[in-house]
Structure formats: structure tokens, C-alpha cells
Amino acid sequence: MSGRASVTPKELRALALKHAPIVRLHSSDRFRPMAPDAFLAGSRLRMYDRRQQEHMPLHPVLNFTTREWTKPPAVRALMGRDYISPPPSLLGRLGLREDGTNRRPFDGRAGNAGNIFIEHRQKEPKGEPDPNGIVPTFYYWKSIGSGEWLLTYWFFYGYSRYQVLQLFGHQGDWEHVSLVLDGSGSVRGAYFAAHGRPRRVKADCLETGDGRTIVYSAKESHASYPTAGEHAHGDETDEGPTWETWQCLKSLSLQEWRRFAGAWGAVGTLAATTGPLGPWYKRHRM
User: Is 272 helix (H, G, I), strand (E, B) or coil?
Assistant: First the structure.
């Protein structure tokens, strides 16, 4: 790696597997990690139109008996009973508009009309009780200059809830942690995302297990922290179940849905209670 502008996909995967973190889930968290594909399988793609104050289905419904796509009657559309599984390839085609705006309702960088979202049929999807080997973690790699590289790991949860304001939560939750590597591939620190600007933690302040960085996932908000205990924003972490992320590791760059520019989750009354934008549009952050 040293002195090189890039690494090959094979080298990157080897590094991603080597450094994939141990995530300690909170022992009392009801909302566990979830595979994005599983979330999509229980969801439908919808369009938000503020003028009508309705959530309209974006595309036809699959008839599971005939295996044909049919246009749903308007009443059924408004009642919202036709859940389908939007193909990842379709989501990938619904990226940023030509003017650079996204498609997420209530987003400050979204267009004025025709914004879209993925709505899961369960109000609060619970995820997998044991995500090991089932729920994927997604990695992304970039140079940050001065001979350092950022290896970011993204985690998806079906639902997130703020602990200070229990009434506030949202479907879909993309969280991440970024490891800082030097030219030899050694960890020099990490950035932890916790509701705001990620802060860098030096390598000698990181907890490790079997040579891997330990990441603590906050109860139900899933913010990432370097230690167990109480944190800002009412977050709490503990030494709960272990998620070995290397058991199911995938490249973010190879996911068909990565360019989807709508909301990963239902629309709420605020941006904070609406599903988030996906990781592809946040990959250059720390």
C-alpha cells in the first residue's frame, strides 16, 4: 500500500476482512441489525406528494398468482395495502437528478416534487436477533491524504429510536465507523459517528479483541461509540451480544441499490422521523 494511489479490489477485500470490527450490540436493544435486502423484501416503493398529502405507490403491483405486474386501483393505492419488493436494480436507477438534488422527502437537498421512499410494512422492523453470518456489513475505501486511508464500515438497522425523546424514531438506519489506516495497513485511529460530526479516536484509545477494533452500538439509536457506558444524547452502550461483521462482508461499491436517492424508510412529520438517505451519498464523510 505504501506510496500507492489505490489498491486492487482483491487487496481491499483482504484489508476489509482483516479489520472488520467487532460490534457490541446493546443487550436490551429491541431493534437489531437487518439486511437491506430483507428490508426491501417487506417493503414497497412509494412517492410522496405534499400537494395531495398522500403517499402514492410509485409502480405497479406484482400478482403473486399470475406473476404479472398490474396497475392497482386508485382506492387500493390510497389505502396502502399493496406491499411489493422493489428490485435493487430499480432502486439503483433512481439516483440523484440531473440538477444534483436527491429524492428524499423533507431533505434540504431534495427536489420540490416527486420524492420517494421505501416503506416497510411493519411500523418498527425488529431485524435479526443474531445477525452473525446473516446481516451484511458494507465497506468503502478512500484516501484522506498525508499517507492515510479511510476504511469505512456501514451497518443497517430496520428501525431507530432516540432515547431522550422516545416518541421520535424512524424506519431504516444507516450507521458507520471509519478506521484510519496508514500506508502499511495498520490502524492509526477511528472515527465514530454519533448523531453529528464524527470524532477521531487514537489507536491506543481503541478497545480491541483478537486484533480487531470494538465498536459499541448505542441502545436503539445505534450511534457508534468506542466504549461502553453512558454517552451524550441519552445514548447508552454495554457489552451485549457480539456481532462479528467479517462473517458477512460486502463491498458498498458493488451493491445495485447504492445510488438510490430516496429515503430508506417511511415518511414522518419531520426530516428526523423520515427514513435516511443511503450510504452512497455519505461515503465521503468521516
Answer: helix
Task: Centre a 10 Å sphere on the Cβ of residue 284 and count the other Cβ atoms it contains.
Answer: 11
Q: Among 99, 148, 118, 146, which Cα is nearest to 55's?
A: 118
CA distance 249 to 134: 10
Domain ranges of the chain: 9-33+125-254, 43-120+256-286
| Cross-strand pairs, 155 | 175
CA 157, distance to chain mean position in Å, is: 7
Report whether 225 contacts 194 (CB < 8 A): yes
pLDDT tens figures, 156-201: 999 999 876 666 899 999 999 999 999 899 999 999 987 777 889 9
d(CA 4, CA 185): 12
Does the model's pTM come out above 0.85?
yes
| Distance from C-alpha of 210 to C-alpha of 265, rounded to nearest angstrom | 36
CA angle 60, 63, 65 (to 5 degrees): 170
